[in-house]
Amino acid sequence: MQEYVAEFIGTMVLIVLGVGLGASVNLKKAYAKGSNWLYICFGWGLAVAFGVYVAGFIGSQAHLNPAITLAFAAFDLFPKDKVIGYIVAQFLGAFVAAAIVALHFYPHFKETTTEEEGNHVGIFGSGAAISNKLFNCLSETIATFFFVFILLNLGDFTEGLKPLIVGLTITSVGLALGSTTGYALNPCRDFSPRLAYKILPIPNKGDAHMEYAWVPIVGPILGALLASLLYTIIL
């Protein structure tokens, strides 16, 4: 049970810091509004690093990502009997985190009255710069492939440095490959916050665009599976 609690809390930390970043750069009267892509990528890298630190300290493998959990289990890198518990904890942690962010920024949501002003689902979920779901899914697959493949090859680093390296990997992937779709890389990072945006009483909110939700689910899972396959072949 402690592993599942660790995944829940670690994912919650990751999403509070990441989605909070999204709110900060989009909502009116937030000091960080209008910050650039470099700021966003470094912020998400730190969010992932701290989530991994917390989950690892409490006692899980700190996946914080259903795509990683599924891919590792598929290639016997993770016990299959723990998959459901990990994934449920991850999705729940992400949803609770999104609710916390919605509460924290409630006055700013009230001030930001339209999608054009910044009150849009992009605060909570990812979205394509150019809408083409096939290529959007391919972008998520490629970005996740490189993230997970690098992740699988971090074995030589001291344990205490691994979360920081994971976070820097997120930053690097975001800077290089993330500007096409916002680089979800993680089904629960997108779906749970997107669902929270849809169902929570957030003032002045726009469309949650649930029709896009499959892209950040399918793409990261495919990318993680391919990375794990290549890793097992060359290991």
Automatic annotation (TrEMBL):
The protein's name: Aquaporin
Subcellular location per the Swiss-Prot or TrEMBL entry: Membrane
Record membrane topology: Multi-pass membrane protein
Lineage, uppermost ranks: Bacteria, Bacillati, Bacillota, Bacilli, Lactobacillales
Segments traversing the membrane: 6-25, 37-63, 83-106, 134-152, 164-185, 212-234
Gene source species: Vagococcus carniphilus
Pfam families reported for this sequence: MIP
Keyword Transmembrane helix attached: yes
UniProt record similarity statement: Belongs to the MIP/aquaporin (TC 1.A.8) family.
Predominant location category: membrane
